[in-house]
Amino acid sequence: MLQDITILANICTHGSTRAFLIVNYYIYNQPINVIMRKIYLLALLLLPVMSIAQSNFKAGYVVNLKGDTLHGYINYKEWGRNPQSITFKSDATNKEQELGNTDINYFEISGYVGYYAYKVSISLNPVDISSPPAITDTASTADVVFLKVLQKGKAVTLYSYKDGLKERFYVKDNTMATPNELLYGIYQDATNADKLINKNTYQTQLMQLIEKYKPGATKLTAQVQQSRYKESDFVPIVMGINGVTETQLLSKSTNNPKGRFYVGAALISSALKDGAYYGSPTSNSAFPKIVVGGDLFVNPDVGHLIFRMEVGYTVNNFSFTDLPDPLYNIAAAPTSYIKINQSVIFLTPQVIYNIYNAAMLKVFVDVGYSVNLVSYSKYDVTTSQGDQVLSKTSSNQLPDAKNNYSTFQFKAGFVVSKRFEIYGAYLPGAQITDSFIYDTNLSSYVVGLNYFLGRVAH
Predict the structure, then answer these.
(1) C-alpha pair distances (Å), 39 with each of 29, 43, 48, 306, 417
(2) Residue 362 φ then ψ, to 5°
(3) Do residues 364 and 353 touch, judged by C-beta distance below 8 A?
(4) 369 Cβ neighbours under 8 A, 6+ residues apart
């Protein structure tokens, strides 16, 4: 199970192509039907092509090094880190060109986001509460980077910059030429290694701006003193310095929801292969499944990459016959008839990528890791010889049964009219017993429909 969780973490961390190569490695080292492997391989080969082909050009403009403003379209991506370059074209039919932070001073995707190119000092101290350094680290480097505009006003502009190390925030007094980083660090106390010291230099920097532009603003001062090193804390402070109201700020935002909730129903067809009996007989069960869940968008204005948590419930009723082993050559050998009733609660975190992402139609692939909680209401074994019942045992527990098991979930589908999600899913076989003698394997196919609740802007 720990290995499976590690694989899912790699899927979440890396880009789509590498992530699905990781999944492909897992698939080809599991006992999955050959046809399913071929279908998966085809999807794997098509995914990078479809992902590259799906662009997201939005109206915007760039300002070049000469100060000229060029209007056109910019490919708006889900930048987990500040971009080093952008794809720009002057109109819908023109050739695309890559523009970096040494080609342009500024770019803006109208109504969404803007970035300025500045040469700034970039701190290199890690901020890690689990392993804080023993001494203050003041190492830094200077580089030209794109800073994302978070709040811009008449007095001060607030920016953010995120790379592979951490997220930083910058402020620029608009009478100055370049922004300064708001500095923050976590260190061990020199006299007590178990005690942490927060070096909140950023609070002093913000207080200096308040003294300059809003002297005597006690409410702002209190906000700074209580502030954490977070965008949600800094934006209201800078708004206060600039005299910008929250209403004014939101009127300039697309205000797409960062998440959504849904309810759904599905048909789940499960196959139980029980190695406790001769020939490992297989039984199939098809029942409705109900689900509820929530999505979180990495970038609400783009909507390509989504993290999902889903809870589902279903029941399975299995029945099969334990045929006599012909090696024993017993005439009229006893035959056992087995019935198993099972209830399953599914807890499934997922990563979704919309490989086609138009407003009214989206096509997606989905990788999840399903942790399933299991209970049993019936385990009946009836042994007969001819018309005579030799024995009958009843229990509410499958022998050696686990109370939970886990498996990956692979899903694909589409969303129509922003509200309806139609999908198919496959859960590879997983062991549901702890026996060292035999295997009891459960796998499932699912087809379902989800309905998104509330406001959906994508």
Answers:
(1) 16, 6, 16, 24, 28
(2) -130, 140
(3) yes
(4) 4, 5, 8, 348, 349, 350, 406, 407, 408, 409
Are residues 376 and 404 in contact, defined by beta-carbon separation less than 8 angstroms?
Answer: no
What's the total number of domains in the chain? 3
Tokens of 248: 């004014």
Q: What is the DSSP string of 120-185?
A: EEEE-----TTS--SS----EEEEEEEEEEEEE-SSEEEEEEE-SS-EEEEEEETTSSS-EEEP-E
Contact 287, 269 (CB under 8 A): no
CA 85-91-95 angle, 5° bins: 60
86: tokens are 């952008």
Look at residue 20 and tell me whether its pLDDT is greater than 50.
Answer: no
Residue 101 shares a structural domain with residue 130: no
Q: What is the CA radius of gyration of the chain?
A: 29
Most confident of 62-76, 129-143, 387-401: 62-76
Q: Is 397 in contact with 433 (CB distance < 8 Å)?
A: no
Domain of 283: which CATH number?
2.40.160.20
Q: Which residue has the higher pLDDT, 407 or 28?
A: 407
Tokens encoding 431: 């062991």
Is residue 71 pLDDT above 80, yes or no?
Answer: yes
Q: Is there a domain that residue 405 lies in?
A: yes
Domain enclosing residue 83, as ranges: 57-112
On average, the pLDDT of the chain sits at 84
Residue 419 lies in a domain: yes
Q: Does pLDDT of 391 surpass 70?
A: yes
Q: Mapping DSSP to helix (H, G, I), strand (E, B) and coil, where does residue 248 land? A: helix
Among 214, 210, 244, CA closest to 227? 210
Whether 20 is in a domain gets the answer no
Handedness of CA 174, 109, 102, 92 (dihedral sign): negative
| 137 in any annotated domain | yes
- With b for 16 or more beta-carbon neighbours within 10 A and e for fewer, the 387-423 pattern comes to eeeeeeeeeeebeebbeebbbbbbbbbebeebeebeb
**438 and 366 within one domain:** yes
Do 281 and 168 share a structural domain? Answer: no
